[in-house]
Amino acid sequence: MADTDLAVKQRTSGHQDVSVLASSDLFRHVSADKAAFYRAIMAVFAAAKRQYRLQLRPEEVLAEADWPSAPPSREEVAAALSQLTEWGNLESQPDMARKQTLADFYRAHNIYRLSRGGEAVEVGLDAFARNLSHRAQLQTVALEDIDSRLQALRQLVDAAASIHDIDVAKTNEVLRDLVRVFEDMTANAQAFMAGVARSLELRQADATALVAYKRRLIEYLDRFVSDLIRRSDSIARMLRELSERIDPVLALVVERDSRDAAPGDGEDRTAEVQRRQAEWRERWKGLCGWFLSQGNELPQAELLRSRARAAIPQLLAAIAAVNEQRSGRSDRSADFRVLAQWFAACGSDGEAHRLSRAAFALNPARHFSLDVAADEDIPASTSWLDAPPLTINPRLREYGEAAPRGPLARIRDRSRERELMARQLADESRQVEAARKRLATAHPTRLSELGELDPHAFALFLNLLGEALAAQDGPDKPVERQTGDGLLHLRLEPLAADSFAQIRTTAGAFTGRDHLLTISPMRMTR
Predict the structure, then answer these.
(1) 205: closest CA among 314, 326, 308?
(2) DSSP result, 269-317
């Protein structure tokens, strides 16, 4: 019995080796001498698969293929089809519909179709080509989709009287859509930010293209950053609410998915359920890590926003480099040519020596030594070989600093300082939010009617007033604009020239011409 099992295992292992070799043959047509010829044939079969055509004759392949050069003969197409069949990309069978005479039975008339391996190769090559040509993008639509999916998930959880009354099918659908949108957004964001620097480098050669690209990129980044700021708070708030109740929801979703799981070889169903639950928890943790801070680490959305803003200085540096090239900035070789002309214009060797010392900083030597008395001065005419040496620490010569003496300093625990800073930031955020609610009423208000403002509200008022006045065409013209952070929309309309407004603060009184101010929070469009 043991010998039989060993023989079966050997035969199985041999079959797997043959399968691996056969799988490698499926890609041989890509690197063959006539690769373009073979790819044109496989493209016809891939198109036929999309058109639900099951089989093709050589004549149909000859007529429909987009040949890289002159159309081949039928015999060349038939030979290529036979070779692709031998490699496993195609399957063939006799074309019995064309056997009308006895002589036809002795001729090789075959029809061909994609094999299972050939279809897999075509799908893989198509995905490879699409990924290479894919243009990464920062998706503001994905942020809107994530927001709407989280709201739908919260509604499903809130609508259920208990966790067992939740609509598991709809919850599963919402979670799958949420994961799909989130994975697509993160992959595109990573590819986009990695490609911004390469795009800037490629466009530096063409000044016109760089200026046009600058305008499009800044508008693109500004729109994405504004939408990211506007939606991150609501997404983070919903994630905090759902994180407290998400574990039993994920357990129900995993239980539903595991009903259709195929049984394995002695695999425990409980272990499979636990594995799937761990996968869903990991996905949820990754989603929270994008919009919620984890300890001392910033959320990934904040890092992405910083990276997007950092792309603008890179763009400005590229434009500065182009402007320097346009202005004909002199290089070192031009400087040396001008210096050679100055040397040629020197009237004597003394003038040439003075010019050389000034141009190349050939100043007298300065000697330092710890072995010489403090009042003893070594003349500059002393050679380096004759001057007393200065002994220095090898570490100072290698690293620019001497080796520290004594034990290394202990690393200070900054956890209390971090907690204090976190509380201060939270308090400041609450005060700024209260100030925003105090001013952003969406109703027209005269400046003279604002009354007394606390320091945070007054600081916010000054920032908004500065943005509005900077965009105003004239002192008598109304101005309407969106704030730089994308959170508020303001309209400032001047009143009569002799009107007067006074705003009282703890630091004093702010006076000036009265205006009609309307501050509205930006609404999230769907």
Answers:
(1) 326
(2) HHHHHHHHHHHHHHHHHHHHHHHS-BTTBPPHHHHHHHHHHHHHHHHHH
pLDDT in tens, 311-369: 667 666 766 666 666 555 556 777 888 899 999 999 898 898 888 888 887 776 666 65
- DSSP class of residue 56 equals B
Q: H or E element: which one contains 509?
A: strand 508-512
Per DSSP bridges, beta strands 479-482 and 488-494 are antiparallel
DSSP state letters, 217-253: HHHHHHHHHHHHHHHHHHHHHHHHHHHTTHHHHHHHH
Q: Are 62 and 74 in contact (CB under 8 A)?
A: yes
The predicted-structure confidence for 183-205, as pLDDT tens digits, reads as follows: 887 777 766 666 665 555 544 44
Q: What does the DSSP 8-state code read for residue 363?
A: P
- Return the structure tokens found at 238: 């919903």
In Å, what is the CA distance from 446 to each residue of 221, 449, 502, 511?
35, 5, 10, 13
Question: Which residues have C-beta within 8 Å of that of residue 222, sequence separation ≥ 6?
Answer: none
d(CA 515, CA 268): 73
Concatenating the DSSP letter of every residue in 152-185 gives HHHHHHHH-SSGGGS-HHHHHHHHHHHHHHHHHH
How many whole angstroms separate alpha carbon 146 and alpha carbon 152? 10
What element of type H or E holds 521? Answer: strand 515-521
Residue appearing with tokens 């800073």: 421
Which residue has 């073979």 as its token pair?
Answer: 38
The packing angle between helices 300-326 and 207-243, to 10°, is 170
Q: What is the percent of the chain where pLDDT is above 70?
A: 71
Q: CA dist 206 to 316, 326, 331, Å?
A: 15, 11, 20
Report yes or no: 213 and 203 within 8 Å, Cβ to Cβ: yes
Stated pTM of the model: 0.44
Dist. CA 236–CA 288, nearest whole Å:
8
Per DSSP, what are the bridge partners of residue 479?
Answer: 492
Q: How far apart are CA 180 and CA 188, in angstroms?
A: 12
Q: How many CB atoms lie within 10 A of CB 59?
A: 11
Residue type (1 letter), 399: Y
CA distances 65 to 44, 80, 245, 524, Å, are: 6, 13, 57, 50
CA dihedral over 378, 381, 384, 385, signed as positive or negative: negative
What's the Rg (C-alpha) of the chain? 38
Specify whether the CB–CB gap between 289 and 299 falls below 8 A.
yes
Asked if residue 468 has pLDDT above 70, the reply is yes
Residue type, 144: E
**Nearest 5°: phi and psi at 89?**
-75, -30
Instruction: Judge contact between 181 and 142, C-beta under 8 A.
Output: yes
If one counts every other C-beta atom within 10 angstroms of the C-beta of residue 293, the result is: 14
Cβ 189 vs Cβ 304: under 8 Å = yes
* Dist CA 89 CA 439 (whole Å): 69
